[in-house]
């Protein structure tokens, strides 16, 4: 029998967060590595621990680690040449011998040093982020950290691990955006889908059409008179480079032919009208000038975003294309091209814009409404978002499209995550708790794919109608971003939500340190839900 005193002591130890440096066998890394074995060894990390590289290509990764350690631990580690180093070090090793998929790495922490081995730079980067997570959850005593011994072997389950941020409804700006990119990198997410244009505002500077930003950039979802806010081309370049250093590709979305209200405010000559609930909602597919105008916009966009992928939306056009039925130019187009109805006009429009993109050597990304538009399979990626239309995903896969899975349930982060939350979306009574995000697996759809590479991965989308403040943004993203990362990266086998919750504790401590206003999923429910700034509470129920 255990003595009561011992029992109390054990219980107290179990309650203590692993973030506080107490021995636990829980792996502190999220997403969970494919294999993580704790050893009895430990490594003493301090400011005179050198970083050693075997390849110049690793320099930017070492620099990233140095910068993060300075920022979070006030540690100033130096780089040293390979040959001269005998002492314990952090060693990055590129090795062609490591036959593993892109992004794979091994991380070994023991008393003699830390070694990160990978075949190429992205793997070394992911090894560095795992190390950073171990470091950030270890106790720092005056610049000395005792790191527990770990042997990790890891590789991603899916290559597309995305997060979409809508900055049309509300604008967050460079500092917050960079912080989101930092956290994405920390959790090995690698695609930032940047929704820059929609009904309330247009947020991207286009030199040829300056009014897009200067006129279209005014307003937001709750206040049409909010001051002009947009990203200049210089800022976009900075964001793209910042993300690239963290192995994140930035993909812009220029939504068309619908969700074009802000652009139409700036250049009404290209508006195709709308419907009572969504005035001036679409571009005008009946005007030849519209195609030139939009192609010019895409040419600048494509230069700014070297991802060679542009998302053209294509969603919800029927919300605001009522005027198409009576517009003389659109009617003339229908007669001329033998288009039977507005759906055919929509397809005609998207095919032409797709051709423009393909000529720029870029891939077309679209929402799942475009599954039937007969776009080329090898240059188009379909984003499945309508969870209530599984047949659309099935059809996209059947036709051979590459797809990204971002179903509203459970991957829309503007949905609430707790039954008591009032402000934010629900689907009837359904919402997106942490557990559902964690449990999501792209594997369950593999049987519908024609080949195993067709499902590129998964993505969470944050629409920002209800996100007026950074506090609310944090609240919707943290900690669900961790569950997203684990769903996208870690193998389905071995997932365990209760253990995940234990591992999460150390991460909540990091949010505390970084002053994020996160949602606390534990019974303490530390922070209340931030609600609408201004009058009243608005509940969104999006069952249509
Ligand atoms: C969407 O949520 N309209 C893609």
TrEMBL record:
One of its GO terms (biological process) is carbohydrate metabolic process. Residues 27-146 form the Beta-hexosaminidase bacterial type N-terminal domain. It is an enzyme of class 3 (hydrolase). It catalyses: Hydrolysis of terminal non-reducing N-acetyl-D-hexosamine residues in N-acetyl-beta-D-hexosaminides. The active site is at residue 316. The keyword Metal-binding does not apply. Residues 158-491 form the Glycoside hydrolase family 20 catalytic domain. Its EC number is 3.2.1.52. PANTHER family: BETA-HEXOSAMINIDASE (PTHR22600), BETA-N-ACETYLHEXOSAMINIDASE (PTHR22600:SF57). This is beta-N-acetylhexosaminidase.
């Amino acid at each position: 029998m255990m003595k009561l005193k011992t029992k109390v002591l054990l219980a107290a130890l179990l309650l203590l967060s692993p973030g506080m440096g107490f021995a636990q066998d829980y792996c502190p890394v999220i997403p969970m590595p494919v294999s993580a074995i704790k050893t009895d060894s430990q490594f003493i990390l301090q400011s005179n621990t050198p970083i050693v590289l075997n390849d110049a290509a690793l320099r930017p990764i070492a620099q990233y680690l140095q910068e993060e350690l300075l920022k979070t631990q006030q540690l100033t580690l130096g780089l040293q040449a390979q040959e001269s180093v005998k002492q314990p070090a952090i060693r990055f090793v590129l090795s062609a011998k490591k036959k593993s998929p892109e992004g794979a790495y091994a991380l070994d922490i023991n008393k003699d040093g830390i070694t990160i081995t990978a075949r190429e730079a992205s793997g070394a980067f992911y090894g560095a982020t795992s190390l950073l997570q171990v470091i950030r959850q270890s106790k720092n005593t005056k610049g000395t950290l005792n790191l527990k011994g770990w042997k990790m072997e890891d590789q991603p389950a899916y290559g597309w691990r995305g997060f979409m941020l809508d900055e049309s409804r509300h604008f967050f700006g460079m500092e917050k955006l960079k912080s989101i990119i930092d956290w994405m990198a920390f959790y090995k997410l690698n695609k930032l889908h940047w929704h820059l244009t929609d009904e309330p505002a247009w947020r991207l500077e286009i030199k040829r059409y300056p009014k897009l930003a200067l006129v279209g950039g005014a307003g937001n979802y709750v206040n049409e008179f909010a001051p002009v806010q947009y990203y200049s081309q210089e800022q976009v370049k900075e964001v793209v480079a910042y993300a690239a250093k963290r192995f994140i590709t930035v993909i812009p979305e220029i939504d068309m032919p619908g969700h074009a209200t802000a652009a139409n405010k700036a250049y009404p000559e290209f508006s195709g009208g709308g419907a009572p609930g969504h005035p001036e909602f679409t571009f005008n597919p009946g005007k030849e000038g519209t195609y030139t105008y939009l192609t010019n916009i895409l040419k600048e966009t494509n230069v700014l975003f070297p991802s060679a992928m542009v998302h053209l939306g294509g969603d919800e056009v029927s919300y605001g294309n009522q005027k198409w039925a009576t517009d003389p130019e659109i009617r003339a187009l229908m007669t001329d091209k033998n288009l039977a109805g507005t759906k055919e006009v929509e397809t005609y429009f998207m095919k032409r814009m797709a051709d423009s993109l393909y000529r720029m050597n870029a891939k077309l990304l679209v929402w799942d409404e475009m599954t039937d538009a007969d776009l080329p399979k090898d240059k188009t990626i379909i984003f499945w978002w309508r969870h209530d239309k599984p047949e659309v995903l099935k059809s996209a896969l059947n036709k051979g499209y590459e797809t990204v899975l971002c179903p509203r349930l459970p991957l829309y982060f503007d949905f609430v995550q707790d039954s008591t939350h009032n402000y934010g979306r629900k689907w009837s009574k359904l919402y997106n708790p942490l557990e559902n995000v964690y449990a999501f697996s792209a594997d369950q759809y593999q049987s519908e794919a024609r080949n195993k590479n067709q499902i590129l991965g998964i993505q969470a989308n944050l629409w920002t109608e209800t996100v007026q403040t950074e506090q609310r943004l944090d609240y919707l993203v943290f900690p669900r971003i961790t569950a997203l990362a684990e769903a996208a990266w870690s193998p389905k086998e071995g997932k365990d939500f209760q253990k995940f919750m234990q591992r999460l504790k150390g991460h909540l401590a990091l949010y505390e340190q970084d002053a994020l206003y996160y949602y606390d999923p534990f019974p303490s429910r530390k922070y209340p839900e931030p609600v609408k700034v201004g009058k009243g509470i608005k509940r969104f129920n999006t069952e249509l």
